[in-house]
Please model this.
Amino acid sequence: MLLLLSRAAGAAAGVIDPVQWLDLFITPQMVDTTVNETNERILARHVGEHYQVWPTTANEIRAVIGMLFMTATLKNSSLRSEELFDAKIGAPLFLTVMSKNMWKFLLRSMRFDNFETRAV
Model:
């Protein structure tokens, strides 16, 4: 019997930090583009409203992406936001990373590119 063990190779060899693993799939340049386009969307949609909004950061975008990966990993992708952030139903991780309202706001606002520069 032949047993083959798979090992990480190339850029993934020796990576043990989850943040570094995420960087292999979602590059810092991709995160920066997402932050810039999301902030444009936030400012365009919410200027002059009765509540204050602040630009998002790379850490918040990375957190949302990581939480989306966790919903898939935990097979919770069919749960609504209210259920993901429920202390009894959802994973405790979600409550410790960000508030439910911030999660919903960022998901509504997230943009990965500038729609005005897309090819027709």
Remarks:
- DSSP finds six helices and no strands in the chain.
